[in-house]
Amino acid sequence: MLWAQYLAAHPEAAELAPDYDVECYGDSVELADELLALVVAGGKRATASLVDEFRHAGQALPRIGSHWIACDGRGAPRVVQRSIDLRIGLIESVDEAFAWDEGEGDRTRADWLAGHRRYFARTLAARGVVFDEARMPVLFERFVVVWPPELAD
Length: 153
Fold this sequence. Notes:
Layout: H1 2-9, H2 12-16, E1 20-24, H3 29-41, E2 46-50, H4 51-57, E3 67-71, E4 77-89, H5 96-102, H6 109-125, E5 138-147
């Protein structure tokens, strides 16, 4: 429904990027809701994921212009996001600007690193994998919210 509404208002979006992913942030209902609230409030316009997570899920990496429907913790679609900047690098390559744009914690690089090290270690451990930050690349993604209109950038 959310995607159909977006396409009805922006049919050119289907020509540019006809496919989309439907996902929740984080690894729990609570974290999904917390991070989505930051998106809705406007403070979160970036996210980071391990490249390994895409491979493990059998998903292609996002590309510039691709769309993502972000759901709340119960799986209800809330916003359509469009990728505007993508970079792959090691976790240590994160800079202050990206940490700020991700909008989590106190928005500093140090806080970002601590939180993401914990998160990546936790999610990989759930699969029996050890996080090796020197060898596991991170996808750094910036996005804009494009739908619904009252939340769009």
